[in-house]
Amino acid sequence: MIVFDLRCARDGHVFEAWFASSAAYDDQRTRGLLECPSCGAADVEKAVMAPNVAPKGNRSVAPAEAKALLAKVAEAQRRALAGSRWVGSDFAAEARAMHVGDKPDAPIHGQASLAEAKQLVDEGVPIAPLPLPVTPPETVN
After folding, report:
1. pLDDT by 10s per residue, the chain, length 141
2. Residue 56 region, left (φ>0) first, then alpha (ψ -120 to 50), else beta?
3. Which of 50, 43, 35 has the alpha carbon at shortest distance from 5?
4. Which of 33, 34, 43, 116 can pair with 9 through a Cys bridge, CB separation 3.0 to 4.6 Å?
5. Would you call 65 helix, strand, or coil by DSSP?
6. CB atoms < 10 A from the CB of 95, how many?
7. Residue 81 and residue 87: Cα distance in Å, rounded?
8. Is residue 108 a contact partner of residue 94, using CB atoms and an 8 Å limit?
């Protein structure tokens, strides 16, 4: 199968059409079987198309813009966590204790399993995932 962008001569509508081959397109055009789906014009030609070329496997997937954006996200997360206390795997218990009033509210961050996080949300505990992973303070890079 091959896809072509086609354009009607009457109003310039551009649309996609699939054919078994280039010869099948030529045959249908010659026999007058092609028609613009927008206006019904029978005078239809191939439109200029940009080729769909896949990138080489050895090229970088992340362009410079994506890396710069990721750096901004990392900096924003670092600033947001600056006044927050790492509680590690005690996150769910600490967040729940603050929510029910057993502990004073304070900014914390840590780790929670998916099941723990869902349970906290179901209980109405205000939590949010971080966009990037956090290295625990006791871990040496």
Report:
1. 788 889 988 888 988 888 888 888 888 989 989 998 989 888 989 887 666 666 666 555 557 888 888 888 889 998 989 999 999 999 999 999 999 999 999 999 999 999 999 999 999 999 999 888 887 877 655
2. beta
3. 50
4. 43
5. helix
6. 23
7. 12
8. yes
